[in-house]
Amino acid sequence: MFLNNSDDVDKELSFSLVESKVFSVFDGGWKLKIIDKNTTQLSYSVIVKPQGIIPIIPIEWRIKEDVPVNLFAVKYAAEKLHENRIKYKEDGNLKIT
User: Fold this and answer.
1) Where is 80: in which H helix or E strand?
2) Which pLDDT belongs to residue 1?
3) What three-state secondary structure class fits 11?
4) Of 27, 42, 53, 54, which one has the fewest beta carbons inside 10 Å?
5) pTM recorded for the entire structure
6) pLDDT for the residue 17
7) Per residue in 62-83, is it b (16+ CB within 10 Å) or e — as a string?
8) How far is CA 47 from CA 11, 19, 28, 68, 88, in A?
């Protein structure tokens, strides 16, 4: 995974399949786009190519099931990090829980 990280620009996290018995391609990424001071848009994209003949419906279902859970986890982690950065600015000690 690769993260383009700068405070002044939108963020992007990309991933690429290393090895799989099911997929020949599973590449994608997450993008964070700063909308305004209090709003950030998170988007997800993926390119999937199965090895052999696999119906697309189970793949789509799995992605539809996993993405919302991942989005909530990312939202929770971002909010906790934001809270801790505010605490850090106030008392000078950063503690991530």
Assistant:
1) helix 56-91
2) 40
3) strand
4) 53
5) 0.58
6) 92
7) eeeeeeeeeeeeeeeeeeeeee
8) 19, 15, 6, 17, 39
Two tokens, residue 14: 């990309």
DSSP string across 20-67: -SSEEEEEEEEEEEEEETTEEEEEEEEEEEESS---HHHHHHHHHHHH
- Name the amino acid, one letter, at 63: I
3-class secondary-structure state, position 76 = helix
> Are 25 and 19 in contact, with CB atoms under 8 Å apart?
no
